[in-house]
Structure formats: structure tokens, C-alpha cells
């Protein structure tokens, strides 16, 4: 794109969230089904009915549900993702200068619109709805093109609109954040085994894996998130397993049709990019990249042993998140569910959306240049009981030579984010002390420490401030849950 001096090109920004990233409500009653945590009963004896009713209502097709805005709640749903609410992204974009969801033309400030959609359905349908929304918004901004910021499955929706529904004439730029072009093994994990936590651990007594697996197998979108090019499954004899035969793990012909259509969707979409595309992808997070299938007599699947590498964002492998047709491919050390609020990713967006048009041409890429270091920070688990130790680790390595970086100061603290669903009103937990991670004398560049999970249940943000020698400090974050698991 050519720099136009000090003028940001006329555009309006459209945020397209990923799977589970839009609220869904009942058309008749207005009741939010996915998901309003204020409706979770305080009485644990009523939790089972609440969970079962929600998942039964979500089963597709259910035409009584409609999208009702992007999620402004944390969605804690491993193994797919621990997903930050998109309100944090919208607030950051507002701080960059965007006006949120304006009804009238905005004058000097570019507009930002959020596109919520029924993420259960075929992405082709969601793309049709996106086309209608962009047509409506473009009428408010004559001469402006849409710039789309799409996370995860939202990238599939946006790309189908651009490539298959004529969107390339209305879209100027596409930003992909953790969006797969060749699916993610995590999608199969979700379809084969279900979620192992839905919002909180104590819901697991209601057989959450089985209930969520049954629900997700009804969603056309789930099958469109499966890898279709990269063979990633083998049996115990190291022979390739064809995921799309389907008979070994899907016992319903309707679901096998959804599986075949999911592959057809991705084959038809391909990897063509007809508009300027910038791809931000997460890396250095343990991510399933393959699996070994255990087979029973007759070829039915009994289990999958997953192989995990530090080669993705925890959900989408790097090879799938790095779109081959993107003009720029920018690595971010971030999880799938928070890449869109990662400080470095937001700096890149600030540059690409606003600042580079206000600076001389020769400085176009300097402000968004990646660090010379790769820094990781992770806890050992997603969820803890009060008083349980939380093992923290951080690593720092040079990007050019891969050498470990010693002498950094790494500090971590816990910040209370909110109560668990069904916990009732709760005040914020007391501030936790800052913990320093100390370098391993035997393994330079590796830092570790333990902190104690607080007594107050809730969602917490683990924040780390990493100060390498002769480098600016970097802040990283991880979402965890603290819950008394005595009810399991």
C-alpha cells in the first residue's frame, strides 16, 4: 500500500471474532443463551440443569437463536482456548482513534464496527451476513473501503466473503490474527473428546466432555476448522489415518456429511488472497500438531494420543496460521485466545492502521519491527485450587542465534479478573505480592518460580514484566482459573 503523507486512507474497520466469540440469544424472548454468566444459578444443585439446557439449546440447527453482539466475557474453554473478551480489543482500537459503531458519518475519525454472527453455522452463511453488513456500513461512508480485522474462525468468514462473494471490491485490507488456513488439530480434539473445562472445573461432574462433544458435532463450523491438507494422524503402526473417512469416529451419517462438506469448504476457499493481507500468528506455545489413533476391532477409534510442540499459539499450529498469501507474516509470542490483546500485536496494529500513514515512507516498517529476542512466559496449568502452587517459567533467547539470554529481571503478579460463573457477587481478591523468577544456573535463559494460588476463587490474569539486559521491558500475560475442586 502506498503511503499518502500524513493522511490515513479513508476506511472503516470491521472486527470479526472467532468461534464462541459472539453472543447468541433467543429471538423470541431476548434471553442470551451463549453466554450470560449472570444467569448461572448460585445454588450448585441447579448447575446441572443450567449446563445441560444451554448446550441442548446450542445444538444446531436452532433457528430461534440469533447473534447479539461480540462477547464481553472471558470464555474459559480448554482445550480450544482461554479467550479474552473482545471488548479489550475494541477499547484498544478506540484508543488508537476509532469511533465505535457510529450511526452517522464520523468526520475526521474512522469508524469501527463489530460483526457478531452465529458461529455454529456454515461459514458460507456467516460470510453472506458479513457481506450484507459491510454493504450497509459502506453506504454510511462513501468512498471508504472496509479494512477487516479477523480472529481465528473469523478469518475464514472474511476470506470467503472476499474471495467468493465479491468482497474484494469492497475490502481494502485484511488482518488475520491466529486464523488457520489449514485448520487445527485442536478442532478434532474438541469434536472427538469435547471440552475438558467449560467455564469452571466443578461443572465437569456433569460430564462436560460428552455434552460439549455432542453439541459441537452438530455445528457445521466445527468441521470447517479441521486440517484438510496436512496429514496429522497415524495409527500405532505408523500408518496414516484419513480423518475424512469419518466412519471410525463419527457414527451419524448427517455428521459425516458435515465432515465432507467441511473439507469441501476449505478446498474451495484455497489460499488465494485478492486484497492486501497481513498475518499475525502466535508461536512458542505448546500446540497439538499430530496424533496417534488407537483403533478397536472394525476400525473404530478409541483414543487419540496427541503430540505437542512449541510451534503455535496453543490452538492453531504455526504452519496453518502463517497464511502463504499474506504480504506480511508477523510472529507474536501469544496464546490463541489473547493474541488480539497482546501488547506487541497491538503495537503492530497501531502502526499498520494509523501511525505508518503519519510518518515518512522510509520509516514504514521500523515501528513494527520485531524484537531481537523471543520471550515466553507460561504457568504449568490452566486451573488451580486455592493454596496450590503455581509453577511459572520464562525463557529468553536471541532471534538471530538462538542463544539464551542471561541476566534478565523477570517479575510476575496475579490480578483478579472476575468471579467464576455461579459464584454470585464477589469483590476483587486482595492484591498478591510480586514474585521474581530466578535464572536456572545450569540452563541459562530459563527462569522459574512458584507462587501460591490465592484463597479467593475466580479468573486471574498472570502478568509478567520481563526486563532483558539492554532491552526495553516486555509485558506478557496468561489467563488462569482458581477454584476449589472439592465438588469434583
TrEMBL record:
Signal peptide: none annotated. InterPro entries: AB_hydrolase_fold, LACT/PDAT_acylTrfase. One of its GO terms (biological process) is lipid metabolic process. Pfam families: LCAT. GO terms for molecular function: O-acyltransferase activity. This is Lecithin:cholesterol acyltransferase. The lineage of its organism: Bacteria, Pseudomonadati, Planctomycetota, Planctomycetia, Isosphaerales.
Amino acid at each position: 500500500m502506498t503511503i499518502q503523507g500524513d493522511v490515513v486512507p479513508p476506511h472503516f474497520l470491521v472486527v470479526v471474532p472467532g468461534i464462541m466469540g459472539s453472543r447468541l440469544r433467543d429471538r423470541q424472548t431476548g434471553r442470551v443463551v451463549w453466554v450470560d454468566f449472570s444467569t448461572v444459578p448460585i445454588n450448585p444443585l441447579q448447575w446441572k440443569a443450567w449446563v445441560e439446557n444451554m448446550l441442548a439449546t446450542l445444538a444446531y440447527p436452532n433457528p430461534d437463536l440469533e447473534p447479539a453482539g461480540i462477547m464481553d466475557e472471558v470464555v474459559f474453554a480448554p482445550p480450544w482456548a482461554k479467550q479474552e473478551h473482545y471488548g479489550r480489543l475494541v477499547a484498544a482500537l478506540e484508543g488508537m482513534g476509532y469511533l465505535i459503531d457510529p450511526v452517522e458519518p464520523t468526520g475526521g475519525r474512522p469508524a469501527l464496527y463489530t460483526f457478531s454472527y452465529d458461529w455454529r453455522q456454515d461459514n458460507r452463511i456467516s460470510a453472506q451476513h458479513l457481506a450484507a453488513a459491510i454493504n450497509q456500513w459502506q453506504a454510511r461512508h462513501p468512498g471508504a473501503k472496509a479494512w477487516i480485522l479477523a480472529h481465528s474462525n473469523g478469518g475464514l468468514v472474511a476470506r470467503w466473503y472476499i474471495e467468493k462473494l465479491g468482497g474484494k471490491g469492497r475490502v481494502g485490507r485484511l488482518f488475520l490474527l491466529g486464523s488457520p488456513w489449514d485448520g487445527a488439530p485442536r478442532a478434532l480434539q474438541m469434536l472427538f473428546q469435547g471440552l475438558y473445562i467449560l467455564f469452571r472445573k466443578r461443572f465437569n461432574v456433569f460430564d462436560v466432555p460428552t455434552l460439549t462433544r455432542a453439541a459441537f458435532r452438530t455445528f457445521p463450523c466445527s468441521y470447517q476448522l479441521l486440517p484438510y491438507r496436512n496429514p496429522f494422524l497415524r495409527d500405532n503402526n505408523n500408518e496414516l489415518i484419513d480423518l475424512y473417512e469419518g466412519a471410525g469416529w463419527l457414527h451419524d451419517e448427517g455428521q459425516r456429511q458435515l465432515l465432507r462438506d467441511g473439507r469441501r469448504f476449505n478446498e474451495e476457499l484455497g489460499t488465494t488472497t485478492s486484497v492486501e493481507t497481513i498475518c499475525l500468528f502466535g508461536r512458542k506455545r505448546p500446540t497439538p500438531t499430530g496424533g496417534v489413533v488407537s483403533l478397536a476391532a472394525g476400525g473404530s477409534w478409541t483414543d487419540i494420543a496427541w503430540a505437542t510442540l512449541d510451534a503455535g499459539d496453543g490452538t492453531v499450529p504455526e504452519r496453518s496460521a502463517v497464511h502463504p498469501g499474506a504480504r506480511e507474516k508477523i510472529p507474536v509470542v501469544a496464546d490463541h485466545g489473547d493474541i488480539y490483546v497482546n501488547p506487541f500485536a497491538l503495537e503492530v496494529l497501531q502502526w499498520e492502521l494509523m501511525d505508518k500513514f503519519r510518518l515518512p515512507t522510509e520509516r514504514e516498517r521500523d515501528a513494527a519491527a520485531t524484537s531481537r529476542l523471543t520471550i515466553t512466559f507460561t504457568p504449568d496449568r490452566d486451573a488451580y485450587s486455592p493454596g496450590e502452587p503455581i509453577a511459572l517459567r520464562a525463557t529468553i533467547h536471541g532471534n538471530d542465534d538462538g542463544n539464551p539470554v542471561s541476566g534478565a529481571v523477570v517479575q510476575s503478579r496475579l490480578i483478579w479478573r472476575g468471579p467464576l460463573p455461579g459464584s454470585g457477587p464477589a469483590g476483587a481478591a486482595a492484591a498478591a505480592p510480586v514474585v521474581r523468577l530466578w535464572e536456572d544456573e545450569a540452563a541459562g535463559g530459563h527462569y522459574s518460580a512458584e507462587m501460591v494460588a490465592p484463597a479467593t476463587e475466580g479468573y486471574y490474569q498472570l502478568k509478567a514484566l520481563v526486563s532483558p539486559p539492554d532491552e526495553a521491558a516486555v509485558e506478557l500475560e496468561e489467563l488462569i482459573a482458581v477454584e476449589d475442586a472439592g465438588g469434583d
